[in-house]
Design goal:
This protein has 184 residues and is an alpha/beta fold. Helix content is 31%, strand content 14%. It has helices spanning 19-25, 28-37, 53-63, 106-116, 130-138, 149-157; strands spanning 40-44, 67-71, 77-78, 81-82, 96-99, 120-123, 142-145. The strands form two sheets. A five-stranded parallel β-sheet has the order 2-1-5-6-7, sandwiched between helices. It starts with 18 loop residues before the first helix and ends in a 27-residue tail after the last helix.
C-alpha cells in the first residue's frame, strides 16, 4: 500500500520524484478531487494513432464519461472530436489539461492552461517539469506530475486489475468510481 487513503494501492512505477516531491505533486486527495471534479479534459499531444498511449488513455477517459478535447498541431478529428492546434484555440472552458508532450514543452502549455482558466494541470507518467508545475500551482491550479491519469482513474474506480495490473489487493469490495462532474 502506498500513501493513499483507501483500499486502492499506490502505483509508484519507478517515479524519479523524491518522497517530498511525491507528496507535493502526487497527493492522493488532489488526484481524487481532480478526477471527480473534472468534466472537460484537453489532451495535449493526443495522437491519431490508436496504438499510442495518448489515444489509449484518451479513449478510456472518453469511455468513462469525460469530454475529451484533442490538442495537436496536425488538426483533423480524433475520437470523433475536432482537434485544436493549441490550447489557445480551444473554445469554451477546460477543467483539466493533460500533457503528452516532452517535458521541455510543459512550461508553455502550463502558461496556456493558466491563461485559459483551467483548474488543473496533469503531466503524464514520465513527464516531469518543475517550472511548469510551480507556474501552475502559483496560479492556483492543482498539479499532478509523473502519474498516468488512466491508471489513477482505474485505481480509484476499482478497475485497474481489468488491464492486468497487480494491485496487490484482494477484496470483494468494489471501489467507488470517480464520476465526472455534471455541468448542467
Amino acid at each position: 500500500m502506498g500513501p493513499g487513503s483507501s483500499l486502492a494501492c499506490d502505483i509508484g512505477l519507478n517515479t524519479g520524484l523524491t518522497p517530498a516531491q511525491r507528496r507535493r505533486y502526487q497527493d492522493v486527495t488532489t488526484i481524487r478531487r481532480v478526477l471527480a471534479e473534472s468534466r472537460t479534459i484537453a489532451v495535449v499531444g493526443l495522437s491519431s494513432e490508436p496504438q499510442k498511449a495518448s489515444q489509449f488513455v484518451a479513449s478510456y477517459l472518453q469511455h468513462v464519461g469525460y469530454r475529451i478535447v484533442p490538442v495537436n498541431p496536425r488538426g483533423g478529428r480524433i475520437l470523433g472530436e475536432p482537434v485544436y492546434p493549441d490550447l489557445a484555440a480551444v473554445p469554451g472552458a477546460l477543467d483539466l489539461v493533460v500533457l503528452f508532450r516532452p517535458p521541455a514543452e510543459a512550461p508553455g502549455f502550463a502558461r496556456q492552461a493558466v491563461a485559459l482558466g483551467a483548474r488543473a494541470l496533469w503531466l503524464q507518467l514520465r513527464i516531469v517539469n518543475f517550472e511548469a508545475a510551480e507556474l501552475a500551482l502559483g496560479a492556483g491550479l492543482d498539479v499532478i506530475m509523473d502519474k498516468c491519469i488512466k491508471m489513477e482513474h482505474g485505481r480509484f474506480a476499482g478497475t485497474l486489475h481489468w488491464g492486468g495490473m497487480n494491485t496487490e489487493i484482494v477484496s470483494a469490495r468494489k471501489g467507488r468510481l470517480p464520476q465526472p462532474r455534471s455541468h448542467a
